[in-house]
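Milestone M4 deliverable, item 7.
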Amino acid sequence: MTLSIDTLTGPTEVAAAAARLVAELARTGVDRRGRFTFAVSGGQTPANMFAELATLDVPWGSISIFQVDERVAPEGHEDRNLTLLRASLPAATDVQVMPVNDPDLEAAAAGYAASLPTRFDLIHLGLGPDGHTASLVPGDPVLEVTDRDVAVTGEYQGRRRMTMTYPVLDRASTVLWLVTGAEKAGALRRLRERDPSIPAGRVAAEDQRLLCDDAAAAG
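Output delivered:
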C-alpha cells in the first residue's frame, strides 16, 4: 500500500488540486474503459471540489457517481449528504443514491451493494477528528464487517447511517483523501502512521493519495 501526500496552503487549494486530479483520472478512465466510476463521501470539501470540476474538461456523460455513505434522514434534509452533492453537480449527472428511506435498511443496503461496480476507479474519503472515515466510526460493529460491501451502522451524532465497508474501499483503484482544518491534525497524523486504532487507519487500498492543507498537516 502506498500513500502519497501533498500539502497545500488551505481548503481552496486542496479543492482545486483534487479537481484537477479527478478530471485527469476521469478522462483517462473514460478513454480506456468508456466509463468512470467515482464514489464520494459527504461534506463541504468535496462540494468545493465539484465546484472546481465545473470549470474543467470533464466527461460527465460517462461518469457514474456513487455515495460512500449517507445519514438516515428525510429526502432533502440538510443532514443528507445527497442534498449538498446534488447541489454541487451538473443537473444531468448520473448519481446512484443510497436508499436510506427504505423501511428495510438491511435489504436496502444489500440492494445498493449489488449495484456497485466490482472495483471503483476512484473513491473519495474524508477524515473526522475522531479518526472516522465514510461512516466507519470508532466502536461501531460495522468496522468488523467483511462479508458485505454496504452495511448499516448504529446511531452516530444523532443518525444511523448506511456506509460502504472496508472490502469495497480496499478494492478501489485509487483512494483520494481530502483533509482540511486544524481540528483534523491529530487524526491526520495517525492516518499517516497507518494507526489501526482509528477507522481511517485500517483502509488498505493499494493506491492512496492524500491532499491536505497546512492546518491539518500541523499535527
